[in-house]
Write a structure and sequence with these properties.
single chain; alpha/beta; Arc Repressor Mutant, subunit A
């Protein structure tokens, strides 16, 4: 039995919709359904009455819900205590962020704070979007950084969790250049010669961004999946090795574009702009977070 199965079950009980709960959990509906079934097999009883609409909990599901809420609360509370004890002393921040943000944005961002705040020590915890949200909700970080697009919003209560825009990025198709400095693989490709695609998994945030971008493009490119990974850095490495094209955050390939090691694999209509946001729990009134948030708010209006 896995903790994520219990989290899935609680989300389903709250939303009373497999599709909405799956979206909240950042997983496909079919994958979400399989995990609920796995939980039911582990319990040994049906927890969801699928014959009704919306789906409701069975008597066994109602009993399990009461226990599940208590179990998760205890686990999260214990984890929060342990992580608090292990945090860096003094002026420090616990930050949750996606792997791409942690690697390419946060080092320079933290360095830029020094003139105003002096040395700010930070523990950066790279993780996926869903786990970053859980860390913020469970009080295991002061700040959470994540990408945002209006059509792919994060499921956070805006009355409880504030956000500021600290940057704008562009998801763009990139490829190695040919000997003549033209794109080795150029969109949209042809049916006779489909382009090798190095892609994100469907459930990752960039995977969802890529799907939205292709939907908005108005034409279906001819591509054949070559490799797949959740991490932009893995895709970038494969693109640099000439294995195909991939949609990469422009911030991660600025140097490679300037050096000519990578080139755009198509015109700007294949790009998707995304915000880079920082979130915090509004109830966190620590002096450092309050002062930092005021500083960030003053500068956020200039981002764009």
């Amino acid at each position: 039995m896995e903790i994520k199965w219990i989290e899935d079950f609680i989300a389903l009980a709250q939303y009373q919709s497999f599709s909405r709960a799956a979206e909240f959990r950042n997983v496909t509906q079919s994958g979400f359904s399989r995990r609920i079934q796995s939980l039911e097999q582990w319990v040994g009883a049906a927890l969801i009455d699928r014959s009704s609409f919306p789906p409701v909990l069975t008597p066994a599901g109602q009993l399990f819900r009461e226990v599940a809420d208590d179990i998760l609360a205890r686990l999260y509370d214990t984890r929060a205590v342990i992580r608090t004890e292990q945090r860096i002393g003094g002026k420090s921040l616990q930050i949750a962020a996606g792997h791409t943000i942690a690697l390419n944005f946060l080092p320079a961002w933290l360095k830029a704070l020094e003139p105003q705040f002096g040395e700010v020590r930070a523990r950066v915890l790279p993780t996926n979007v869903h786990d970053s949200i859980l860390m913020l909700v469970n009080g295991n970080c002061e700040l959470m950084f994540a990408y945002h697009h209006p059509e792919l919003p994060l499921h956070l209560d805006s009355t409880k969790y504030e956000h500021l825009t600290v940057g704008i990025d562009t998801l763009m198709p990139a490829t190695r250049p040919s000997a003549r400095s033209a794109p080795k693989f150029r969109l949209p490709g042809t049916r006779q010669n489909p382009l090798p695609l190095i892609s994100y998994t469907d459930t990752s945030y960039f995977g969802r961004c890529q799907a939205l971008l292709l939907k908005q493009a108005g034409e279906a490119p001819a591509m054949q999946l070559h490799y797949e990974s959740d991490m932009a850095e893995v895709l970038k490495k494969l693109v640099l090795e000439g294995e195909g094209l991939a949609w990469l955050p422009k911030s991660t390939i600025t140097t490679e574009l300037a050096n000519g090691d990578l080139v755009p694999a198509g015109p700007a209509r294949w790009n998707l702009k995304v915000e880079l946001r920082v979130y915090r729990d509004s109830s966190n009134r620590s002096e450092l977070v309050e002062t930092l948030w005021h500083h960030l708010r003053a500068g956020s209006s200039a981002v764009g």
